[in-house]
What does this fold into?
Amino acid sequence: MARLPQRVVCLSTETVEVLYALGEQDRIAGISGYTLRPPQARKEKPKVFAFTSGDMNKILAVRPDLVLSFSDLQGDIARDLVKAGVQVHAFNMRSVEDILAMVETVGRLVGAAGKALDLVAALERRIAEARLAGDAIVARAGRRPRVFFEEWGEPLISGVRWASELIAVAGGEDIFPERAVMHAARDRIVADPAEVLARQPDIVIGSWCGRHFRPEQVAARPGWDALPAVRDGQLHEIKSAVILTPGPVAIEEGLPALLKIFDAWAAKRA
It folds into this structure.
């Protein structure tokens, strides 16, 4: 259909992932330099922007008829592209439902609504299967593990909403659920590490954007040797590219990673 966008620029990795999954990758005219999934996208598609910085002229040079952006962090470039006459759709996923809705919307935008619904149904099946596995972990352990999801170490930042929701699906309990609903990372800063100590997490999961998680640094924090997670060696990393990307990868790879960690914790309690 001639009305559908033929030259799509994706300024974040998750919409690239979805378009490839839908078989609509030929429409992609440009990607973010931070795109990781699928790996072939980095070889096949021109990199026209970073994430929050870059030259808008590189985007315009590929003559996009649609640009897909993500969150307020890309608000300035989205505004400038609109001013330049480019069609822009800005996503702002914060929950698992938002991720599934993004998949459906991308499908509709490129005329692949049916394939998008099939992909969403497959992701929902994965979630349902993971929930059953999580319930089994809880039954075996006698309770849910208390989990501190650490999105950043200095300052301490607790996990975004979809990570908190996936923890619950996998049978865990986020120790900062009230922070998870906050959209901005600055609103999820744990200013006083004593708050973590007070909530006694059984497991710490680190997912530091752009940096390797350092469990030895976590264990060395003042007073943290009293945490069950430190005492029992339950300091784990899940790569940010896996669980902090608001796309199918969080469900397809992030959720199984959580289940593996929780299952090992439950086995030690048995």
Observations:
- Residues 8-92 form a domain with the Rossmann fold fold (CATH 3.40.50.1980).
